[in-house]
Please model this.
Amino acid sequence: AYNFSAGPATLPEPVLRQAQSEMLEWRDAGASIVEISHRGPEFLEVATSAERALRALLSIPDDYAVLFTQGGATTQQALIPLNFAQPGQPADYVVTGHWGKTALKQAGPYVATHVAASSEADGYRNIPARSTWQFAADAAYVHITANETIHGVEFREIPDVGDVPLVADFSSSIASEPLDIGKFGVIYAGAQKNLGPVGISVTIVRRDLLERAGQPRADIFDYRSQLKGESMLNTPPTWNWYMLGLTVQWMLDEGGVAEFAQRNARKSALLYSAIDESGGFYRNEVDPAVRSRMNVPFFLKDEALDKPFLSEAKDAGLIALKGHRVIGGMRASIYNAMPEAGVQALADFMRDFMRRHG
Ligand code: PLP
Model:
């Protein structure tokens, strides 16, 4: 089956096959990858090669540190104000969907959150023009959500926010295209879409920002201590780290982010064409200029068709197309591991379903 789940999402088949054998015995360690110590030379090699591969894949400059931590993207949303803002200092949030709103909420106890721009009143169907954003004075950072996984809205350009550090949630679009990391202060992502299975997140931080005081926080919530401790202050999620390394290496072997950018443009165009050419049978309400290439939400013209659509799709080997409960309808998540054949199969199915039910 082709799995269109938004996350945990489909993983590349070669990665799953390699993991299957190494789950039983990892190289000559005499034990499974999940049974060896995180402090031993075998796992340290897994961890450092995962970072090396990620740095190569994303062209991460040397003046950026990379942290691999537990707690998912939501935890980073709370740790960012703790690490980079003074208590009560303003921090700007640009809210373009559900996850931007979550980030705002997580920061609330620690900083004076300020909404610099929001498309909530419009149902999160666009991104407010940069010229309309209104920043707080003395803001610690500006936070954006690069790709809104539920609403299907994606920044197609990195906004210029001057000297204030730009913090971006890239959970659902990291590694989907080449990115100038140097334009950001912090980039974070839960792994479970483009980077591997759920259970680990990646935070890429400009090193000079780590010198900022931040707020009182326990070591375990302190990015500086995590960096000093090589992301191993406590037992790290070793299996997830290993799987992330395999997934990143797979992306490098496939041709890297430039190659995936082309595939993702073709894949998303297939689905948006099927929607736009359906004469209203299917609809996607997002401003075409900011439609996501990773998550394609769509609605059928008659809600009564939702159930038959999902059940016939499942029979055709196309699974996990039900939309998020926040907006309903359908959603096809087409991350890097989704082959073009899977997206073509879905577009063909959509046209066929419309012929039979339209
Ligand atoms: N940010 C975005 C853009 C997401 O898509 C998600 C989850 O889907 C999250 C944050 C929350 O991630 P986590 O479940 O890892 O905390």
Observations:
- The longest helix spans residues 256-276.
- Residues 7, 72-74, 99, 145, 149, 169, 171-172, 190 surround pyridoxal-5'-phosphate (CB under 6 Å).
- The chain has a mean pLDDT of 97.
- The chain has two domains: 13-253, 256-357.
